[in-house]
Design goal:
Layout (H helix, E strand, L loop, with lengths): L25 H11 L7 E5 L6 H14 L2 E7 L8 H16 L5 H4 L18 H10 L4 H16 L7 E7 L14 H15 L4 E8 L3 H8 L3 H4 E5 L5 H15 L7 H11 L3 H20 L8 H17 L4 H11 L10 H11 L6 H13 L3 E3 L5 E3 L4 H6 L11
Parallel strand pairs: 1-4, 1-5, 2-3, 3-4
Antiparallel strand pairs: 6-7
Length: 412
C-alpha cells in the first residue's frame, strides 16, 4: 500500500475542532431555527453540558444557520479577565460589535446618532471601535446606561438595513462570567439587564444573546437574576445515542473515502469506551485509525491498541485535572467513583455513607460539603439544580477507579 490522501486520518479530536460529520445534533439546530423566528425576541439561549460533549462545535454550527436567516453574529471566547468588571465586559461587547459592523455600516449612517448636524462634513468610511466607544463615553450614567445606549444606537442603524433581521451576541466559556460582590462589580447582572431592556424596548433591530458554557453557568445566572428562567431557553447537551455515536464513527470514514473500515464489533467497542461523548469518540477513533494505517502499510493485520489508548487518554485528558486535587480530595473522589450513581447525580449523604464503609476515617456531612465546594472551585464537580452534585468531567470516574488507593487509609 502506498501513501496518499486516502490514508489520511478523518478524525479530529481537540477543543472545538469541527468533525467531518456532526452527529446527533439535528434537534438542537431545529430548535435554534425556531428561536430565530421569534417576534419579538422573548427567549435567549444557554448552551450547556460537560466538557467533551461538543458545545463549541455546535455553537460554531449555529452561526451559518443564523447568517442564512439574515442575522449577523458577533462573539468570542469569554476569558476570566474580560469578565472581571462591568466596563471590561462592555468593552468586550463593543469590540466584537465593531469588528462585525465595520463591513456593514459607514460612518455617515452613524453620525446623526452621535449628535452631528447635516451641516457637518460627512465622511464615508467603515465604522470602527472608536466610533462606537464615543457613543458609550458620551452617554451619562452608569456603565449599564452607557452600554444600553450604544447597543440601542447600533440597533436603530442596523434596523434600517432591510437585509438584516437582528444581531446575535454569542459568548463561549461563559461560565467565567459572574458577579463580584466583594469589589462591587456585577458584569453578569449588567449583561442580563441590558439584553432584557433591549428586548422589552423592541428596538428596530432584534438582539439575541447566546451563552455557551459548563453547567456551573446555570446557578450563576439564577443567582444574578431570578428572571433568567424566563429569559433563556436552555439546551443541555448530553452524550450521543448509540445510533448517533455510530454515525459519528462511520460517517467520517465514508466521507474521506478511506479504504480502511471499522467492523461492527470495533464500532461497539468504541461506543462503549467513549461513553457516547463526541470528544472521546474522535480521540479513540483517531488513535485506532493511526494504528491501523501503520500496520496496513506494513501488510500486517490491524489490531486495536486498547491499553495504549486508555493510557494516552488518561495522560492527555484526565491526569492534569486529577492533579489539581489534594491527597485528601483525591481520596474523596475515589469514594465518589465507588458509587453506583457516580456518573449521574450523587448527594452528600451518599458520599458520607460510602466513606464510612470504605475508609478508616470517613467524612462527616460538614466536611464532605466543604470538600465538594473546593472541588467545585477546581472544576472537578458541580452542583446540580436539585441540590445534588455531578462530576464535571465525563468518564472521570473510570479514570479515578484506575488510580491506586492509599492502603493505610482504607478499610481491609
Amino acid at each position: 500500500m502506498t501513501d496518499g490522501p486516502s490514508y489520511q486520518n478523518p478524525f479530529r479530536p481537540g477543543a472545538g475542532q469541527k468533525p467531518l460529520y456532526l452527529a446527533g445534533r439535528t434537534h438542537e439546530q431545529e430548535e435554534f431555527r425556531t428561536m430565530l423566528r421569534q417576534q419579538p425576541v422573548s427567549q435567549n439561549l444557554v448552551l450547556t453540558g460537560l466538557r467533551g460533549v461538543g458545545k463549541t462545535v455546535l455553537l460554531d454550527e449555529l452561526k451559518p444557520i443564523a447568517l442564512q436567516a439574515n442575522w449577523v453574529w458577533a462573539g468570542n471566547d469569554l476569558s476570566e479577565s474580560a469578565s472581571l468588571s462591568e466596563e471590561r465586559i462592555a468593552k468586550r461587547i463593543i469590540t466584537d460589535l465593531a469588528a462585525l459592523l465595520g463591513p456593514l455600516i459607514e460612518l455617515r449612517e452613524l453620525k446623526p446618532l452621535l449628535g452631528f448636524t447635516s451641516k457637518d462634513t460627512i465622511s464615508s468610511r467603515p465604522i470602527d471601535f472608536n466610533d462606537l466607544w464615543s457613543i458609550y463615553e458620551a452617554t451619562p450614567g452608569l456603565v449599564e446606561d452607557k452600554l444600553k445606549a450604544t447597543l440601542e444606537s447600533v440597533g436603530n442603524v442596523i434596523g434600517q438595513l432591510s437585509r438584516i433581521d437582528g444581531i446575535i451576541i454569542a459568548y463561549d466559556e461563559a461560565q467565567n462570567l459572574s458577579d463580584h460582590r466583594s469589589s462591587e462589580e456585577f458584569p453578569l447582572s449588567m449583561l442580563l439587564d441590558t439584553f432584557s431592556y433591549l428586548q422589552r424596548r423592541q428596538v428596530k433591530c432584534k438582539f439575541l444573546l447566546i451563552l455557551c458554557g459548563l453547567p456551573t453557568l446555570l446557578p450563576k445566572l439564577n443567582e444574578a437574576r431570578t428572571y433568567t428562567e424566563r429569559m433563556f431557553h436552555i439546551m443541555r447537551l448530553q452524550r450521543l445515542s448509540k445510533s448517533a455515536a455510530k454515525d459519528a464513527i462511520l460517517k467520517p470514514i465514508e466521507i474521506a473515502r478511506s479504504p480502511l473500515k471499522f467492523h461492527d464489533a470495533l464500532v461497539n467497542d468504541i461506543i462503549e469506551m467513549s461513553g457516547g461523548y463526541p470528544y472521546f469518540i474522535q480521540f479513540i477513533c483517531k488513535e485506532v485509525f493511526d494504528a491501523w494505517i501503520g500496520r496496513a502499510k506494513q501488510g500486517m493485520r490491524p489490531v486495536v491498541p486498547r491499553q495504549e489508548i486508555v493510557a494516552k487518554l488518561d495522560e492527555d485528558f484526565f491526569a492534569g485535572r486529577w492533579q489539581r486535587a489534594t491527597d485528601r480530595q483525591q481520596e474523596f473522589l475515589q469514594i465518589i467513583a465507588s458509587l453506583d450513581n457516580c456518573e449521574e447525580e450523587f448527594s452528600v449523604n451518599d458520599i458520607v455513607i460510602a466513606s464510612r464503609k470504605l475508609l478508616k476515617k470517613g467524612f462527616s456531612p460538614s466536611h464532605a460539603t466543604q470538600i465538594l465546594q473546593a472541588l467545585t472551585e477546581k472544576g472537578l464537580v458541580y452542583k446540580s439544580r436539585r441540590g445534588s452534585y455531578v462530576l464535571a468531567v465525563p468518564l472521570m470516574s473510570q479514570f479515578i477507579r484506575r488510580q491506586p488507593w492509599d492502603g493505610a487509609a482504607r478499610r481491609v
